[in-house]
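Hi all, long-time lurker, first post. I run a small reading group and we've been trying to get comfortable going from sequence to structure in the token notation. Rather than ask abstract questions, I figured I'd post a concrete chain and ask someone more experienced to write out its structure so we can walk through it together at our next meeting. Sequence below, copied exactly:
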Amino acid sequence: MARNKRKILASHEPILHDDHKRPVTRRDFLNAGFITSAATVVMPSLLTSLISKKAFAAFDPAEDCGIGGLGAGKIPFICIDLGGGANMLGSNVLVGPDGTAGQLGLLSGAAYNKMGVPTAMSPIADPTMVNIELGLAFHTDSAFLRGIMSKTTAACRLNVNGAVIPARSDNDTANNPHNPMYGIARAGATGSLATLIGTSNSDSGGRSMAPASMIDLTQRPTKISNRNDTRGLVDTGAVSALMPDKYEAGRIMEAVEKISLAKINGSTLDSVPDTLLPDNTVTTVQDLVHCGYAKTTDTVKTFDGPNSVDPEADTNIVDPNAALQPTEVSNQTGNVGDLTAVQAALPDGAPIFTENEIGRGKNQSTAAVMKLVLGSPSDPFAGAGTLAFGGYDYHNGTRGTGEIRDFEAGQAIGAILEYAHRMNKPVMVYVFTDGSLASNGNIDGSADGRDKGEWTGDNSSVSASFFLVYRPGSRPELLSTPGQTAAQHQQLGYMSASGSVVTNGTTPGANNPNLLAEMCVLNWMALHGEQGNFPTLFPNHGLGDPTQLDRWIAFAPIV
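-- Answer (accepted) --
Happy to help. Here is the structure in token form:
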């Protein structure tokens, strides 16, 4: 019998639970949904980067000042941090027990009920409840899947594949060291404006922590949440406005630098050398002045003003004048087993967001991050990034509250994949959360509840992370290794038949978020064919025998 005793909360409404402590910190407020989303750009402090990197080495202005980083040919990386413990498995990404079938192995009816899937809607009773259009298998009525479908075209989806990692983590806490961004940066990700993009003013750049062994505080986050913050990265004030020829403006900046150095030296302009430091040392105030002006000059010469990084100036993202516009859809759109409505929501040639959609917080952050990480057609503006969405601790006795929020997270994932498709660039999107939650089997019969199980409590035994990879031209191929099926590479680890993460004898990250983050970095490196460098870059890693790391890798190289 369907029941709906609790109020379904809209995506902007915070969630407070009687058995949870009152929010105190900014992370607590994000977790509860008082703060829904944010993003930060991680840019090295000039002083700390000079001291830490090259204090006693040869001075190279391009390297030491962070100038000229053009992505190093690396695959753009974006991770999505769902604060509070979202549902990942069963109702969204499918998962199976031990065996060669991987995701398509069947769990028990009780397991699906715990994951919010009534028996009648489970793959046990109805094989059509499995959707593999994205390579990675989702439940056909997954809110993540519907959101992704609503922001991708069929041509994009043909070139997507993914993998899931069943892994426990602590419920409702920012102390899980989930965030892999610093590891991605160590492995070579960079950009022409910033190394990383993240979330919040924290050491990790997001809600969840970064593994302590990966943190590099010279790249500590600077907050960014909308187009104004992205524009500020290249806003050089009146110089660009007064000198529309960017190369002429650059020469003006070089002249101003020379004047400043003359003042510092107490010398004449003629005494300031064209080569700043012939002795190749990095210990003087002059070096700092030089780098400050060199960065500004490079920005002036490289970028055609703030519009070059403004997501709302990019007609792929939003274009009110376009002949075709997306159809705005909600979680209620489409019935179980019918994805036709959401699949048709983004016509070929339409911008990704409508003018109305781009004004919403999650969409603003998503557009800003994907614009900076995926950058121009040739090079990224930032190497990697995090989007943090709050309010995913949605076990409030309804199903509809979680469905709405999962649908919006799916739209963010879909927008990133579609933007990569339009930029003709690969991307890896990694989704994680702190713990998870479970259903007691009672049904939410409301329109947003979709006749599925109500979420009623925290349960880390059904937690997981997953990632999707887009490759221009063809779908990424699963790795092939002796003794493992392709399905075992797509599902790294497994569940018990009763629906709990098996932590012994599966993957290193199954019960350790530090190692889960390492597995993510390893998989990103493997997309470049560079997994052999992992033990050197991370000498104290916990992934086991360095000659056997392919066990924890999903895909063959894509670049």
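A couple of things your group might point at:
Residues 240-302 form one domain.
Residues 40-59, 238-243, 246-250, 267-285 have pLDDT under 50 and may be disordered.
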